Amino acid sequence: MADATGETQAGQQIIELRHVDKWYGEFQVLKDINLEVAKGERVVVCGPSGSGKSTMIRCINRLEEHQRGQIIVAGIELTSDIKNIDAIRREVGMVFQQFNLFPHLTVLENLVLAPVWVRKQPRREAEETARMYLERVRIPDQANKYPGQLSGGQQQRVAIARSLCMKPEIMLFDEPTSALDPEMIKEVLDVMIELAQEGMTMVCVTHEMGFARTVGDTIVFMDRGEIVERGSPQELFANPKNDRTKLFLSQILAH
Amino acid sequence: MASPSTDSIPRPARPPFWRNPAVRGVFYQLLFIAVVVAVGGFLVHNTLVNLGRQNIATGFGFLHREASFAIGESLIAYAPSDTYARAFLVGLINTLYVAVLGIVLATVLGTVIGIARLSRNWLVAKLTLVYVETFRNIPLALQLLFWWTFLREGAPSPRQAWRPLPGVFVSDRGLEFPLPQSNPAHLWIFLAFVVGLAGAVAVSGWARRRQMATGVQFPSGWVGLALIVGLPLLVFLTAGTPLAFDWPALKGFNFAGGGSVSPEFAALLFGLTIYTASFIAEIVRAGILSVSWGQSEAASALGLRPGLTMRLVVLPQALRVIIPPITSQYLNLTKNSSLAVIIGYPDLVSIANTTMNQTGQAVEGIALIMAVYLAISLTIALSMNLYNRAVALVER
Amino acid sequence: MTDATQDLPLPAERPPTPSAGIVSWLRVNLFNSIGNTLLTLVAAWFLAMTIPRLVRWAVIDAIWHADSGRACRGDGACWAFIGEKLRFILFGRFPYAEQWRPLFVVLIFIGLILASCDRRIWGRRLVLLWLVGLALVGVLMWGGILGMSYVETDLWNGLPLTLILAVVGMALAFPLAILLALGRRSQLPAVRAICVAYIELIRGVPLITVLFMASVMLPLFLPTGMTIDKLLRAQIAFILFAAAYLAEVVRGGLQAIPKGQIEAADALGLGYWQRTRLIVLPQALALVIPPLVNTFIGTFKDTSLVIVIGLFDLLGTANAALTDANWRGFFAEAYVFIAAIYFSFCFFMSRYSQMLEREFNKGGRR
Fold first, then answer.
1. Hey, is the C-beta of B313 within 8 angstroms of any chain A C-beta?
2. Which residues 202-261 in chain B show a CB within 8 A of chain A?
3. Which among A137, B15, C80, C219 is least buried, having the fewest CB atoms inside 10 angstroms?
4. Is the confidence metric ipTM above 0.85 for this complex?
5. Which residue ranges make up each domain of chain C?
6. Using CA atoms, how far apart are residues B321 and B283, in angstroms rounded to an integer?
7. Cα-flanking dihedrals φ and ψ of residue B384, to 5°?
8. Which of A163-167, A179-183, C70-74 shows the lowest per-residue confidence on average (mean pLDDT)?
9. CB-based contact (8 Å) between C118 and chain A?
10. Is C20 near chain A, with CB under 8 Å?
């Protein structure tokens, strides 16, 4: 739970999902999801397509609504209350598979948009932060270019910087490298690994098992809407206990 | 050391001229031009011969002759003793008048309906769908005839005119409405409006600079609106509310006083607006839908509220997709105003038609009409190209 | 810590609140917020004001049989007027006894349009079908052979005239449009200039102007003594007008063909006309079928303008029917009736084009 100042302490639970269910119409897409993420923990979620992994992390910042169960982020319960949703979104950053950069704004304008309009920062301060993060993701000279002029890998790194400019406590990644050409995957994964090494709490949906092994504290395997198995990378990859896990791992680790 | 002479460097062999693509290109073009000129010359020759036989002069001299026909309605002074040139001017002004009004009204109506089409309210979405499909699939000529005949035959005589609003009368003589009487205080009110406008601009500039510097936000939209509306209102009240209307009153068989528009104008404006708005609605809807859902998701994920998301992320991108086809609709509306000839509104085409019938100078008349519409089309197309180039998304 | 759960998937449960059923549907779609509730109420009020009045006028109070206009005056619609004038509105002054001929013509056109929607016969068979259909239409309308009396084009009125103007206009505009589009993209400056001038000129002026031009100037263009049929003048106007708009549509398709296609054709040794005919055009035209259909819908609606040059298409005959002294004032019935006819054709074609567009976007073309 959060302490008196509202900040979560290292090691405490920063995300809790308790008995979360979600339906699309009559189809149940999340079944009794129970998950706890500690501050500073790195969770990698994997599973076949349609397993609900993207839906689950999108519930965390209310891009999707859950119908039953409880979701508590940084001590705030996620309900339809707009105040709660706004507060949670300020603390949770999200990186999308399709980057979703704003094409009509320059890279710099993409980065300062939210700090200026949501955190109400002065523009100069926001720009300083933005340039700092552009350096961190190693593209400081692209500040005045438009997203359409950048490569896929560069765009995704800008997207990561854009989320970081809001100084979130948690970063969610929804298949961040799936839309990239192979030669650009590494530059994005490198940025994510650096982020992890600095202690960022991360929940990442990905197929990159090498990344999971390097950085992940917990691997969560989902199938058909439920969490089937979870464990440390060493345990899960070497000794999967569940048949469905074994099947999935055999398919993606084959090559 | 002697450099090798350039004669020893082999050059590609020149093909014989009949196989040389450049020569063939020139040849084909000359042939093409020759055919076009020949056909054109043949047509022109026939035309001159035929016109000569009918003793019809050529050239635009007829424009200085007296028109000797009356025009039903005009925004500038006109009498049958004026020249044909002035008659054309009246027609042009009438066309532009109905076109500009139509464009403004159709844009407002079309945008509202386009946004309503996307409403989550099922009833609203379906009703607007019925509107769009109905008016898009019926010819405009039929719609205009319907509204005009409705006003002329379905509306009552002035004595039993409909009164949808106080002071507004709808009858088969047209639409009557109260007109504010002019008053010296109006000048002050207008000045207050200008001051309010300037103030709104200044406030929004100041607010933007302050936000850049300190991050504090300011509702400059609302304040600006208050200035633009409030200042004139203040002057209006302190001047003792000098608003007297000239009310239309029944005198004998018709109305006197107030402002009025003929059934032709009303039907034309109404029909054009409703018809074009249905196309604009679909354009606006497609434009908003064209902004990928991921954009609003990314904005929401960053913490932006729906209002800000719409203003900063969705609308700028949607406008880029909306503006080009909408200018094409504006052009269509202007061209469609020529259907006024069917219901007797004296627009440019209608007056040119009368002129051509009277003078027999069909070629010149048509040339004039085409020149005017071409000028309007090219102006709109040029402005649209400039706009497109200014806001094009920058890509590799 | 490992946490292996059961090997079988959890059974799915029903959602907590009923998400099906009419009450829940109403809640989500009509009343899910204050704003929406207000909108629903306003919309419902609007419907309550208009629908009952419309139904009363069109059905309940309507008079279905009457002998004359006077007997037909009431609160409701006078459909007897339509019954009385039906053949005139549909076929105009075509000789009464032979009106089976324009009826067949309309049926042939409907059949051709429906057949063109079936993608299995796209290609040479369809072109052949159209040629045969149009030839039949010509024979039926003109007559003069096989015991049918000759009917001059002045008496071709009503729905057949609308269909002929629109269909023949598009059909003949099509080849011209292809040439214009190719010409506009040509490397030869003279050809390009003339094509651009033509297209921009025609697209910049209203159709009425082009109709006037054809109606008034074509006779002047011909050598003295030659006359040209009024219908032919209007038909030429439609062909010239539609060709300019179609040319822009085709040009859009040509621009969408990847350069690699042209390079591959060149590498195979095909000449300009061969590669255009065999490679570029088939792909370009397939790409732009939805806008082509939309242009046809526009042309179909535009045929109503021939009323200004004295031809009597469907709108013209309806107007003429209203001038009958015995049946005065039933303009609403007449206009609603032909509006329904226009709407049926246009709505059907627009739905078809939307369906095509959806299929093409799904990539289900090849």
1. yes
2. 211-217
3. B15
4. yes
5. 85-361
6. 9
7. -65, -40
8. C70-74
9. no
10. yes
